[in-house]
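User: Hi! I'm working on a homework problem where we have to compare a predicted structure to a textbook description. Could you give me the structure for the chain below?
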Amino acid sequence: MMENALFESHFDLIPFGIYVVDAFSYTLVYSNRAFIDRFGDHAGHTCHKVLYESDRPCGNCRMGELLGPDGRPNGRTVIFEHFNEVDDRWYQMQNRAMTWPDGRVVKYSIAVDISALKDTQNRLAEAHAELALKNIELTRLSTTDMLTGLANRQCIDGLLEAQLEALAEGGRPLSLIMLDIDRFKAINDHFGHLRGDAVLAALAGLLQERVPQGCTVGRWGGEEFLVLCPGLSLAEAFVLAEGLREAVMGLGISGLGGVTCSFGVVMAKPRESGEHCMGRADRALYAAKDLGRNRVETG
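Assistant: Happy to help. Predicted C-alpha cells:
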C-alpha cells in the first residue's frame, strides 16, 4: 500500500489528467487530482462506462497495442489525439501499460487538454483557406475583363507571348483574329453607354460560344476583341472569322437593330514579337474598315 501511495502522490503532482485502468477488467484503479477535478472520482468503476458512456471498450483504448502475447506490458507508448464527445474537448492521449505496485497489469493514460491548440489550428486553417480563395479571386480579377468576363489585355498579352515561344520551338501554327464593332461610338452617343455595354457583353457571349475549343477570346480594349487561335492556319482562321462576322450580323440587340464587326486576321511568324504580330492584325483590321466595314481582311 505504501508503494501505491507513492505512485499516487507523484501522479497528483502532474497538472494533466491521469487515470489507470486494469488491463483485463477495464476497472479504474486510480485517477490523479487533475483528472478527478474534471471528471470526478470513479475508482472501481468500468472506465468506458463512466468516461465515454459506452457499454464496450472504446476504439481509442489501444489496450491490445500495449500488451505482449503473454499479457505483460510490451514497453510501447501510444500517443494520439482524441475528441471526447462527453465533455466536448480535444485531448492528446499518451497510453502505456505497466505493472502496478500490487502486481496488476494496468494501462495508464495521460490526457492533455489541447482544445485551445486545436481551436487555433482550425482558425489558422480557415484563415489559410480564405487567403487562398482571395488569392484565386485576385488572380481572376487581374486577368479578367469585368464587363464581359473575357480574358483582359494583360492576360491576352501573356498568352500570346507563350504561344509565340511555342511556335518558335517548332510547335503548331498560331493565328490571330482582331475584330472591332463598327460605328460603336454612334451607339454610345445615341443610346447611352449602358446600351453600349450591353452590346459588348452580348458580343463577348457570342464569341465565347462560337470559337473552337482551344482558342482564347479576349477583350483587347474598348470595342476591340482578340481571338488567339493556336493550331489554325491563316486560311482556317479566315474561315472562322467569316463565320463570326455572319453570326454577329444575326446578333439582335433590343432597340438597336443589327450590329456588325470588321475583322483582321494574321498568322504569326516564327520569332515574331507579340507587338509586331498585333500590329499586323491591327493594320488588317483597319484595312477592313477602310474597305467598307463588316468584312474580313488578312495581313
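For your comparison, note the following. The longest helix spans residues 115-143. The radius of gyration is 37 Å. Good luck with the assignment!
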